[in-house]
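Subject: complex prediction, re-run

Hi both,

The earlier run crashed halfway through, so I resubmitted it with identical inputs.
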Amino acid sequence: MAGSGAPAAFSIIDALMAITGPQGLLTGDDVRARSCDPLRNVPNLAAAIVRPASTDELSRILRLCAERHQPVVTQGGCTGVAGGAYAREGDIAVSLERMTRIEDICPISQTAVVQAGVTVEALRAAAAANGMFYPIDLGSKGTATIGGTIATNAGGNRVIRWGMTRQNVLGVEAVLADGTVMSSLNRLIKNNTGYALKDLFVGSEGTLGIVSRAVVKLVPAPTTQSVAILSVGSFEKVLALLARARQVPTLSAFEVMWRDFYDLMAHSGTNRRPLAPGQPFYVLVETLGYHASVDGQLFEAFLAGAYEDGLVADAVQATSVKQWEHLWRVREGSEVIVRELSPFLSFDISVEISALERYVDKTYAALHREYGDMRTVTFGHLGDNNIHIGVTVGPDKPEAKSRIEDTVYGTLREFGGSISAEHGIGQHKRALLARHKSAEEIETMRRIKTALDPAGLLNPQVIF
Amino acid sequence: MAGSGAPAAFSIIDALMAITGPQGLLTGDDVRARSCDPLRNVPNLAAAIVRPASTDELSRILRLCAERHQPVVTQGGCTGVAGGAYAREGDIAVSLERMTRIEDICPISQTAVVQAGVTVEALRAAAAANGMFYPIDLGSKGTATIGGTIATNAGGNRVIRWGMTRQNVLGVEAVLADGTVMSSLNRLIKNNTGYALKDLFVGSEGTLGIVSRAVVKLVPAPTTQSVAILSVGSFEKVLALLARARQVPTLSAFEVMWRDFYDLMAHSGTNRRPLAPGQPFYVLVETLGYHASVDGQLFEAFLAGAYEDGLVADAVQATSVKQWEHLWRVREGSEVIVRELSPFLSFDISVEISALERYVDKTYAALHREYGDMRTVTFGHLGDNNIHIGVTVGPDKPEAKSRIEDTVYGTLREFGGSISAEHGIGQHKRALLARHKSAEEIETMRRIKTALDPAGLLNPQVIF
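This time it finished cleanly. Structure:
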């Protein structure tokens, strides 16, 4: 084809096709049909979605793109909400959806080796079949891939016990922008032999390389569960409860719902009202353990102590798996938020817990002062400093979007909080990053980016 | 002084003195008197040891050294055994021993902010005074500094519960080779805003920058302890015990001693013989918890179950703090090893636990085949894949040293193990690294090194 005068986009597609074969390449409507965003239909403008069947194919694809100065966007399950997978016209999108092998699960070493296209749910199921448990648990787990959760350092509900994705991954194989296969598939807990390459690639949002395989940590599958929802009269008491809950070594979730969130659920018509509304805070506490003889006893002692010491107004404890699921549904009512608050803005904030109530109060006051009686909901993973705030954007004021963002993030700065606790920067928060991170941190990140991807071809509009 | 013809070493010392004042500079015998190695007297050949009193002074020192192409070696407590603090003639050594402020301890957020010169012991004591606990626990904790343990990603005895130093540090402030103060003093558990700079600096052994301050994670101070030593008839049974112990959520140590190690202690004349010798393995199990009502019960149930199912030949459980310390002394008998085995070589190895017994057996067989009846000891942190092997080097065969190393490391390669589990690479294992890590990993590390320290001035002979 050289010199034939064919458009560049055509000739690179031919070259990609030569690497993967036709089953490895999607173009036209097959690309258009895939949204880059899980919440709304953001058109996938990529010239093609290339789907390598192996690390070797992926390496050849990236080498080809590097030679042609072709920007590449990596798309996992496209469940991220930070715009990390948005493809522009002319981009080549890479999807590892054909690399879905779970290569090894070892209950003795407590590890699994997987290709990056495996979904979180598939890994969890395979672990369960071996008596093991992969702790990362997200609402989107059926679609989100291991590669995507590694790229974004996904969190979820059990971070308080097992950490974020970075803490649950031991090693990665990544293909760099020039096609180099950087295999760092460490299986060892302790391995002090140079820089933390795995940790660097986790959370780099596809800007340093494409993770093709990973070694993840598993834990024994828990055999006991306890869940309760408590209503609590003040944030001070919520913090006192958290301090006690942290001494329960089987603690696996400590989720807090502000009154507005709980009220929304209680009045949603979905029967999610395990306790009377009206208290300022509602807390979901969960433990996952291995000892029927003591786990429930310890959980009940925690609840009883909290009652006795006046930390809790009311409480309901699940006594069956069905009730357990019912209580979790109160906390996870995202479809109710979408239904009742849309159009709304969603924020993924972290603030030190000692300052969290003040931050939310100040933000609410500013929002109401500036925009009247807009609806809000706040909830989140308190033990991890992480809350999500939802704010209605009235249909008559679409221009309010960036002003609301300014208010929420502007309040955040004085509290030393983070503009992204678990969702990442993607394309959406690039501009914010410069205002919330020091110039020296950004410059250090940029030097690393340039060292590994000097032409800036990988996810070019993400983070930087 | 410009153009005065004074020797370069003199003029830089004058310039350093101008930054720190005389109390910030050690020269001559004050430098010579400090060994670069905790185990033997390795002369400190540095032209000076400069001791900044603040991050600002440190920044000016590094800017000066960058301008003069002056290599800089960072020396913390000099307790590392990988030669990471060795200073060559003409080097400038930097010590943060005057930066020892514990700036903040917050029991609510469970964090402390410290200057890098604080010793691990001082931090642990300050945490304890606030009802909190810093989990990193090393034999050298009285001398090892937070900065040094961050540089080396120190491990120790409680990794199975709380992880290595990397998992216990939330943020760092580091001064780069050009004097840039890169402040990334994150206090948040969840903060997905770009690359994992903290994780990259932890374990970089002073080659990317000098860590000047850090935010560390604390946990509530445990209030219950249980310790036992068990004798076990096979490695298979040791693994079965470990799998059960992992289900005890308060598990804080699972230390295994091979027969040769235990025999050495049992016959050392130090009364470290809680159980009869003769079994192939001895295991120290510890739990640290918060609930007197159930922690002991769970520990005893673990022991009883292990007995009933034939996993344990014999066991002794501590019933007092004194006995608790006595049992730990069996495992920590490094002075007995030094006395009985010297001159000896010490190895810090990790291998997946499913292959660990085969690795040790094969290594022992190779050592005995090649060098006759040399003495060995093996022990370590089994849950973390980490063992330490000590091998006598007979006084009549000093040339045996590198041959023994070749044997131990050579056997390691086929098992996919690591040449350094927790001690780091330093200067001692540079040559080995190239044989045990892929060229692509080393090249990626080198690109990062060059991006942050283009002239290669920081710890120039460490890692690379």
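The longest strand of chain A covers residues 224-232.

- K.
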